[in-house]
Amino acid sequence: MLKKYMRDPSLIILTTNIGIKDNQSYEEISVEILDRQVRKSRTKEVASVKVLWRNRFVEEATWEAEEDMKKIYPHLFEPGEIPNQGTNSFLGTF
Asked: Where in the numbering of this chain does the Chromo domain appear (predicted)?
């Protein structure tokens, strides 16, 4: 059985006092390098690494440019840290 609600003005929270930032973004932090591959075209080679991000599953890992990742996360590229250091080549037709 429902009872009648008695309104209490002292329980009202003013939303103007809450500070909300306009930028509600956060920075993803890489945890581990899972794989490495080199894609070859006729004129150049592009090295990529598969990156596992914090708070993500392995299935959600992304391929990123190796050069960019070395600049941002150099600690991930210490000797012996990259598994499968062989190159998986992809011959694309351009």
From this structure: 32-77
Write down all domains in the chain, each with its CATH number in brackets. 28-91 (2.40.50.40)
pTM of this prediction?
0.56
Distance CA 36, CA 86 (A): 8
CB-count burial class (<10 Å; 0-12, 13-18, 19+) for 81? exposed
CA 12 to chain CA mean position, Å = 39
pLDDT-derived band at 15 (thresholds 50, 70, 90) equals: low
SS (H, E, C) 50-69: EEEECCCCHHHCEEEEHHHH
